[in-house]
Design brief:
This protein is an alpha+beta fold and 89 residues long. The chain is built from one helix and five strands, in the order βββββα. 33% of the residues lie in helices and 28% in strands. The radius of gyration is 12 Å and the shape is globular.
Length: 89
Amino acid sequence: MTELHVPVILRESGYTFYFVMADLNEPPHVHVGRGRSRRSDDAKIWLRPVGVARSGRFTARQIAQILGIVEVHLEWMLQEWRRYESRIS
């Protein structure tokens, strides 16, 4: 997939947070991977309310860290979701 279809919105603490443009018809969420690669076993985190849709290959401790990062950046992530969503509407 190209960057246009999988925009990275945040890199923090070794995690990469990104959207999958084909998923924008679903409730707001981010996919989370390690480093720069994206894999089918990446985590999927709901943004409203914040919760785990799929933990992927991450441990419970890593998921807790990911959820903490999402909470810190939640409003901004929701704004980004709406911005990308408006591109396909």
